Amino acid sequence: MSLLALFGALESGLIYALVALGVYISFRVLDFPDLTADGSFPLGGAVAGVAIIAGVNPWMACLFGMLAGAAAGMITAWLHVKLGILQLLSSILVMVALYSINLRIMQAPNLPLLGEASVFDAFVTDANSYWMRRLIIGVVVIAAKLALDWFFSTETGLAMRATGSNLRMSQAQGINTSWSILIGMAISNALIALAGALFVQTQGGADISIGVGTIVIGLAAVIIGETIIPSKKMFWITLSVIVGAILYKLFIQIALSNEALRTIGFGPQDLNLITALLVVIALILPKLKSKMLSKRHRA
């Protein structure tokens, strides 16, 4: 694997680390199967892209993208907690609706951003272009991680974790579980939309299809991270999610550039197939690990 491909995988992994953090909140903290991610990722990119073209500061454009993603997450949660629609179905409904909304925002299936301002312009030069862009994204990811670590140690964050662990017990303790779900889903999809906003600035444009498979990547990153760094402390959990996203993208890049796979016919067109295989492996790894540990204990 070339150095350029390695830096590309690192950049993509850092961006999708934000997605993984958002997916962790919905799937692990709230126990809410949320497919809104496939719509909120391109939503963040579309809103940020349109704002940048309109002359808005790129960092403010990212904030607007986050707010749009938060609104999408709150709508998903509202459909469930207020209208009683099943969690999975409510997220599917919002995801489908966001496809049309994203098209309306961009006014076209794609939105070119080449030549427009980006969050990297003030820092990146020809001499440091290989690493500076990754450093900026890394700083954003670390800031998001530390913010989540702090939030989940607050009373609101602990109430949210309790809601996901045992809904009825939380209600019996006087916790407003509906509010916890609304806030949690808003934070989750805000992080995913922020990833979309950064993604379109690295790619030089937004596209209606960039959200396809976002939830699969996020889930794979969470599972890989939990397998490699098992812990119950929030600091290590969020770190494991970030590591899982980076490793996932590195695995994908290694698989695509592997000569042995190329000789048997694998290529870039098989990206989704390789992704599915990696997710299957990530899902069965914890089971294999537990079986090995049980055999050791018996021995």
Please, could you describe this protein's structure?
The protein has 299 residues and is an all-alpha fold. The chain is 76% helix and 2% strand. The chain contains twelve helices and two strands. The protein has helices spanning 3-29, 37-53, 58-81, 87-106, 129-151, 155-165, 167-172, 177-203, 214-228, 234-257, 259-263, 271-298; strands at residues 110-112, 205-207. The protein has a two-stranded antiparallel ribbon. Helix 1 packs parallel to helix 5 (129-151) and helix 3 runs antiparallel to helix 4. The longest helix is centred in the C-terminal third of the chain and has 28 residues, at 271-298. The protein is globular and about 55 Å long.
Question: Which secondary structure elements does this structure contain, and how are they paired or packed?
Answer:
Blueprint: H1 3-29, H2 37-53, H3 58-81, H4 87-106, E1 110-112, H5 129-151, H6 155-165, H7 167-172, H8 177-203, E2 205-207, H9 214-228, H10 234-257, H11 259-263, H12 271-298
Antiparallel strand pairs: 1-2
Helix pairs in contact: 1-5, 1-8, 1-9, 1-10, 2-3, 2-4, 2-8, 3-4, 3-8, 5-10, 6-8, 9-10, 9-12, 10-12
